[in-house]
Amino acid sequence: MKELAIVTDGVCDLTNEIIEKYGIETIPYRILFGQETYRVWHNDKFTISLEEFCSKLATTSKETLPRTSLPSPAEFKQAFDEALKSAQNVIAVLLTSGMSGAVQTAQMVVKNFYNNGNVTIFDSQQTMTGTGIQALEAAKMVADGKSKSEILNRLEALQLRVRTLLVMNDLDYLEKQGRLGPIENIRKKNPDLIPAIHMKDGILHPLTIFQNEDDLITRFENFAKKIAQQNETGDIFLTHINHQKVTKIIYDILVDSALDGTTIYYYPASAILGVYSGPHSIGLSYIGNFDSSWL
To answer: Which of 24, 58, 133, 221 is the most exposed place for a label (fewest CB within 10 A)?
Structure first.
């Protein structure tokens, strides 16, 4: 039996290849679409695909948009029990407590069922691949034989340097989820432009505004070159929903500019992102320096 296993939630947007390679256990997040309930464990395991989600979204009014629901206590317990079949301890890297009750629910489960200290909850203070990149870093450290304390110390040290940027063509979806917060001013002042937002202090904050798609491409080209040289863990995540043209340009620049040993994960996002962004969005996560002037 190994010393440690990593658990994360369905918002992580990690691929099955990563999940299988590092033995990460995932807890499904739910998507509520009218009277129907779907589950997403990770980018490649779900009961509704991104294509199916976008198709349903196209026939749904903005008055009846889908929403997400966090895992039940039983689902948290099931995932922890499964992880503990092959490991003595568990670290669960979860969606930010600033946007979800997942951390609080998981902590309640731990208090009720795992009071010997073998399950530890880590609040990622991030969302989507910003959570996933931390779970991946922890899992890589497990594979390298690092201890639980070493991994938790590493996660704490990196947390404020995790960067997640999201480009969303329509903020109405985010508003319907009650997640606008400080971003509300962007939508009021610039309803026809393309906003970029980012995670800071566990919630979404406004970052910048693009005048149009050409402006988005031009400015992201420079940004991609910068972050390709700044990432500290050798991993960069680039996901999208129906933004193939823009993200392919960004991906090519990342590949050309990246430091040796960098892995760039590039693929369509899961339907979870679509609940918050609608049918057009871009997600980018890495760990390292960041300056808003790069955009």
So the answer is: 58
